[in-house]
Amino acid sequence: EVQLVESGGGLVQPGGSLRLSCAASGFTFSDHYMDWVRQAPGKGLEWVGRIRNKANSYLTEYAASVKGRFTVSRDDFQNSLSLQMNSLKTEDTAVYYCTRASDYGDFFDYWGQGALVTVSS
Amino acid sequence: EIVLTQSPGTLSLSPGERATLSCRASQRVSGNYLAWYQQKPGQAPRLLIYEASSRATGIPDRFGGSGSGTDFTLTINRLEPEDFAVYYCQQYGSSPPFTFGGGTKVEIK
Description:
The complex is a heterodimer of chains A (121) and B (109).
Chain A: E1 3-7, E2 10-12, E3 18-25, E4 34-39, E5 45-51, E6 60-62, E7 70-75, E8 80-85, E9 94-101, E10 108-111, E11 115-119
Chain B: E1 4-7, E2 10-13, E3 19-25, E4 34-39, E5 46-50, E6 54-55, E7 63-68, E8 71-76, E9 86-91, E10 99-100, E11 104-108
Parallel strand pairs in B: 2-11
Antiparallel strand pairs in B: 1-3, 3-8, 4-5, 4-9, 5-6, 7-8, 9-10, 9-11
């Protein structure tokens, strides 16, 4: 059974940093592209960023709203995905979902339960 | 960046009725690479449909996707109580950023 479990959410002040982690199991993690998608309270879904697999040089891509502030990384030995968030803004407040990109295209076939990040003074 | 517009914002229907949800793209979605997700309160989204009309594993056949180019539709036949939720479309036909529609809420009338 595929499982994605996020951790590391919490309350942080504007300008601060936070690191989210996602533990993956039940599939060959190293084969898949992995993405982060977020959802502000009461709002829709927003793609945040992705990391490709080793075969594709671990290339990363980001939404314009987070580029230069957020970094996606992965550890294929630990089957884990991370999102380092720096220079946080109040508008980054959201539930952050770890997702697996499908073998068949750039859609998200498995999602974690989400981690809430609140940016507030 | 492709903008997806979903309509209506809210659909009020009774169990057993058919729901028709629309997703319109600001430009052609390459390969008809459009997905639909269902989200219930307090839960993560769940993949329903990919490539406009292919059902994901375990999705009941009352869920159907159709459309091409810029206009796509999710149809839910014979609404069950568990189908009342918010539905999002997502395009993946172009390089990132991958974009989502704003969602359609299907509520009990």
